[in-house]
Amino acid sequence: MHVVIVGCGRVGSSLAHNLIDDGHTVSVIDRKEVAFERLGTNFAGETFKGIGFDRDLLARAGIERAEAVAAVTNGDNSNILVARVARENFGIERVVARIYDPKRAAIYQRLGIATVAPALWTTERVLRRLLPEATAVEWVDPSAKISLVERSLGKTWAGRRALELESEGVRVVAVSRLGSAMLPTPALVAQEGDIVYLAVAADAIDTLDSLTNGPSAGQGH
């Protein structure tokens, strides 16, 4: 597919190379000509100098045949403008905008624009390593009703089936062991130190500590 990337910083240039390596075509837009130096001399895509939300420039970059647009400049306002023009003027459904302000990211997520908030993402991961006992939330849906949560299993779960973690409002999505992830099966037995990814309803978040620290007294082997 064809992808238009607005912003040729570290993220935009890396994204462009990854997409081309996967067999896609790419057009990159940036206000500064010097930014394209990050792409290297052998870049197989196209580059366009100018303002990323300029509709004429987007048309020259092939947005009318594009299936996706990524707005990854350093400015929240620019990224939102690009995203809105792509969605509203060109009908692009796959639009992602990088938004530094977590509150604004949540607002635009609810409006149907997929957002990535680097500050929030980084904060969560730093907290996870500073406070390993805290709930690590990987993702929250726009309505805030469902979260994807990462937890580490204690030794009391060793030898028990991983799906015993499931309860009202909690579903096991995946289990990671020694850096390798796997989908849960009825036969999968947990080990101490396994990382589990759980889809959790908002009203069940508070039960996770007791659930992942050890099986309840009523559960048998």
Count up the helices.
6
Question: What class do helices, strands and sheet pairing give?
Answer: alpha/beta
Helix fraction?
A: 25-40%
How far apart are the first and last residues' alpha carbons, in Å? 50 Å
Briefly, what CATH class of the largest domain?
Alpha Beta
CATH architecture of the largest domain: 3-Layer(aba) Sandwich
Mean pLDDT: 84
Run of helices and strands: EHEEHEHEHEHEEEEEH
Number of strands: 11
Radius of gyration: 21 Å
Question: Please, what is the CATH homologous superfamily of the largest domain?
Answer: NAD(P)-binding Rossmann-like Domain
Unreliable stretches covering 5 or more consecutive residues: 216-221
Shape: elongated
- What fraction strand? 25-35%
Main beta-sheet annotation: 6 strands, parallel
Overall structural domain count: 2
What is the name of the CATH topology of the largest domain?
Rossmann fold
What does this entry look like structurally?
By secondary structure, this protein is of the alpha/beta class. The protein has 2 domains: 119 residues, Rossmann fold (3-Layer(aba) Sandwich); 79 residues, Regulator of K+ conductance, C-terminal domain (Alpha-Beta Plaits), CATH 3.30.70. The protein is 27% helix and 26% strand. The chain has 6 helices and 11 strands. The chain has a 6-stranded parallel β-sheet with strand order 3-2-1-4-5-6, with helices on both faces. It has a 5-stranded antiparallel β-sheet with strand order 7-8-11-9-10. The protein starts with a strand and ends in an 8-residue tail after the last helix. The C terminus is likely disordered.
